[in-house]
Amino acid sequence: MTALALDIVVGAIVVAMLLCAWRVLRGPETVDRILALDTLYVNVVALVVVLGMRQQTELLFEAALIVAMLGFVGTVALSRYLTRGDVIE
Fold this sequence. Notes:
Oligomer: single chain
Strand content: under 5%
Helix content: over 70%
């Protein structure tokens, strides 16, 4: 029963990732693309965590933590670049 629920969750996350990727490619403005990219990072973290639960391995949880940190730093850097024109003062 748990395996079926995890398979359904993986499918839902993949659909959400496809919708975010569509928004990244076809976003009307740059801000929309950055928000979609941030949401895509969150979806990747969720997918890696669910796959870690499915495969019962702790290595994927560490990978999810690394992806989350890189996604946060990337979003902050892109936002600062848009608002100020540079990333480092």
